[in-house]
Amino acid sequence: MTSSPSTSGTSSSLPPARNAADQARADTLTRLGLAAEAPGTPPLMEINDLKVDFQLPDGAVPAVKGVSFTLNKGETLALVGESGSGKSVTSTAILRLLPELAEIKGAIRLRGEDLLSASTRRMRELRGNRIATVFQEPMTSLNPLHRIGRQIIEVLALHRDLKGRAARHKALELLEQVGIPEPARRIDSYPHELSGGQRQRVMIAIALACEPDLLIADEPTTALDVTVQAQILRLLKSLQQRYGMAILFITHDLSIVRHFADRVCVMRHGELLETGATHDVFESPQHAYTRMLIDAEPAGEKAPVAADAPVLLSARDVRVSFTIKRPLFGPKVAFEAVRGIDLEVRRGQTIGIVGESGSGKSTLGRALLRLLKSQGQISFDGVDIMPLDKSGMRPLRSRMQVVFQDPFGSLSPRLTVGEIISEGLRVHHPELNRAQRDARVCDALSEVSLDPGMRNRYPHEFSGGQRQRIAIARALVLKPEFLLLDEPTSALDRSVQVTVIDLLRDLQARHGLTYLFISHDLAVVRALSDHLIVMKEGEVVESGSTHAIFEAPRERYTRELMQAAFAPDLGQTHH
Amino acid sequence: MSQTTPAPHGTGGASAFDGQPPAAPAGDSLTRDAWRRLKQNRAAMCSLVVMAVIVLACLIGPWLTPFELDEVDWNAIGTGPDLASGHVFGTDVNGRDLLTRTLHGGQISLSVALVATFVSLVIGVLYGAVSGYFGGRTDNLMMRFVDIMYSLPFMFLVILLMVVFGRNIFLIYAAIGAVEWLDMSRIVRGQVLALKKREFVEAAHALGVRDLQVVTRHLIPNALGPVIVYVTLTVPKVILLESFLSFLGLGVQEPLTSWGVLISEGKDMMETAPWMLLVPSAFLAATLFCLNFLGDGLRDALDPKTR
């Protein structure tokens, strides 16, 4: 594939051929940690015209279409792209861990050794040893049944032949290096006893166990909260300086890349669009797509509503607690997720609720809609809704609607889009006949800029962004006044996010909707809301007008959040 | 994203599409998708054809053969397969045509399978879905009842029913159905427990959809994949159970017969008249093979991961 002229990396002109003596010398130097990064050193890894086709029953589907780049020793290369760009397939191809139906062509060389023709045995030697990986999901990439110490020792025993006390000693050392507090105690913990960030640190410890030449980090911080994300990136950076390894950093998030990577490769639809030094790519992007990605940061602000606008939803001292354990004898063990929240939403207002995972923001949202049991006082449009039962709530349901985070989980896979959208009409407007319902569905679909002709299709035929539009249409068809938006953009690519935000803003202006917008993404909240509530551990940390909080955050926690989200300082390790 | 013309909102029933909603082509539905994948599975499709042939033969075959179910041919008692006499698969020790009896027996065996499976499907799915959906104490009570039913020995139940109601073919349907729905309800409950936490169910609650509607429109259809697969595994199980009961002499009564009865009779004459064992066994084995392959094919076709 020669469609993009800029595919060859900045330093790929070096010949791959090297003699064995050279290689041996380089190996020794690496072991000693002395290898020089002089210009003219052959690249650590070279990928040449890599093509991956998936042989599916319906024919071959190309996932990577001729990608070439090089990676030097001690360098951080970011592979950036949105979902479906082939970035993860590329990194998995390096490890040769793709499923068998993937056909790989081209060349991948690590220190001159062709990985694609290497034996399975040789690949096993390399994986976890010379090439290590950190995956996205720290919850699932550790075995829940083994203590973390044992999982680190497993790698050491496999590649370094370390056993017994020596291995345990090394494991402790690694845990200390990745910043796990009290490593001597933590080494015997199970994964579920650690937080998400700590688990990711353990994954990094496992990856570093054999001091690899190349660390492949596949979205290592995507599942983490922003403050933790910054810590992990800082850790990776400092470990890189210490071990001199190269990092192939795969991400969809350009804002991380700016402070973290030396060079950037931008991918789309399996093609490499642009390669260059991070600074150059950000300052003068060559490709329109790159420019779009950089600019895809949601922009704009929302003007506050009049101070005397009528209150639509108000809440006093809302508390939600979950029973964790109900022993046969003795008292219940409960956990309070929301601890006395006061809230007032005025008509036409958008209140943003931000917080990290576990802050209780989603729980609060569900409690306000009476989807969860709660204590306190909630009234909607002057009506106290706490004493209402299911059927008492039903008439109000059409006026307060919700859009959820996961566009793949929030639509029933066995109903057509038309059936999904019309469901609320069946409940609230039983007087409508089939044709009238159909017409309303078409209205709702065209309001969210989808073709009404697609209403007989099933959700699996739509992309993530389209599904989120369908979910919005389902809420809108009832003509609600109040919309709870629970992270509606979090599962979407940045470029899609921007269009959904525009849509939400547009709908609000057209119909005078009132939003309660829950998100962990400060950039999105700033663009959409006029009032902000920062939550932590079930309590309000700070609240006020969005503008004021972003200009001058009063609380330390708010400042930390903003620091982590907008200007992560990754250059050096500090606390 | 291009903006289309804004439609009026909050203006009652007025619609930009009043009267004439645009035509919407039918999409690629899940069932059609699954059917397409099933068609690519050669073993499953062969099984489907063989299965259809067996069912058809059992349904209309007894009328086409020149002999009656209980007609004794005095010229051919316990003779082997013989084209000249018309006894293609031979006769039993009483001179009755084995093909006719096997096809008749197939009617009983397959109908037991059909009825018992249907009973287990309806009761099991509803019971499991309700139990899983309401959860808590309801779930606890309903599932403990299932546990009690499980702990009753099956043979004891059948013999008890026999004693009370006498020997009756419908008792077999009832007894087998009463046992088979237990597994089904467990499977459906497990599915529903996982499904009810999904966001589309929560969205339905937010829309104010009634509980019964949530169960029937959202939960059961999404639990259907494993249910269909389990049904194809229940059918052979039920046929085997009926064979087992008949084999013990607790099943159907003469002159009616079933595959289990025929095999039981055949095993006594195994040395002198092996065809009496081989013919019904071959029918039973073929049916079970087909259903198992079909179950495998359906499981693959309905599994979203293979998509």
Structure description:
The complex is a heterodimer of chains A (575) and B (307). With 575 residues, chain A is α/β, with parallel strands linked by helices. Chain A has a domain at 345-566: P-loop containing nucleotide triphosphate hydrolases (Rossmann fold, 3-Layer(aba) Sandwich). Chain A has helices at residues 20-32, 87-94, 120-126, 148-159, 164-177, 183-186, 196-208, 226-243, 254-260, 278-283, 288-295, 361-368, 390-397, 417-428, 434-447, 464-476, 494-511, 522-528, 546-551, 556-566; strands at 45-56, 59-71, 76-80, 102-110, 113-114, 131-134, 214-218, 246-251, 263-268, 271-277, 311-325, 333-346, 350-354, 375-380, 383-384, 400-403, 482-486, 514-519, 531-536, 539-545. In chain A, the strands form 4 sheets. A 6-stranded mixed β-sheet of chain A has the order 6-7-8-3-9-10, sandwiched between helices. In chain A, strands 16-17-18-13-19-20 form a 6-stranded mixed β-sheet, sandwiched between helices. In chain A, helix 17 (494-511) links the parallel strand 17 and strand 18. The longest helix of chain A is centred in the middle third of the chain and has 18 residues, at 226-243. The radius of gyration of chain A is 26 Å and the shape is globular. Chain A starts with 19 loop residues before the first helix and ends in a 9-residue tail after the last helix. The two termini of chain B are 29 Å apart. In chain B, 68% of the residues lie in helices and 0% in strands. The longest helix of chain B is centred in the middle third of the chain and has 37 residues, at 98-134. Chain B has helices spanning 30-40, 42-64, 98-134, 136-151, 154-165, 169-195, 199-206, 211-247, 259-268, 275-302. In chain B, helix 2 (42-64) crosses helix 3. Chain B contains 10 helices and no strands. Chain B has a single domain (31-69, 101-306), classed as MetI-like fold, CATH 1.10.3720.10. Chain B has 307 residues and is mainly alpha-helical. Chain B is elongated. At the A-B interface, helix 13, helix 14, helix 15, helix 16 and helix 17 of A face helix 7 and helix 8 of B.
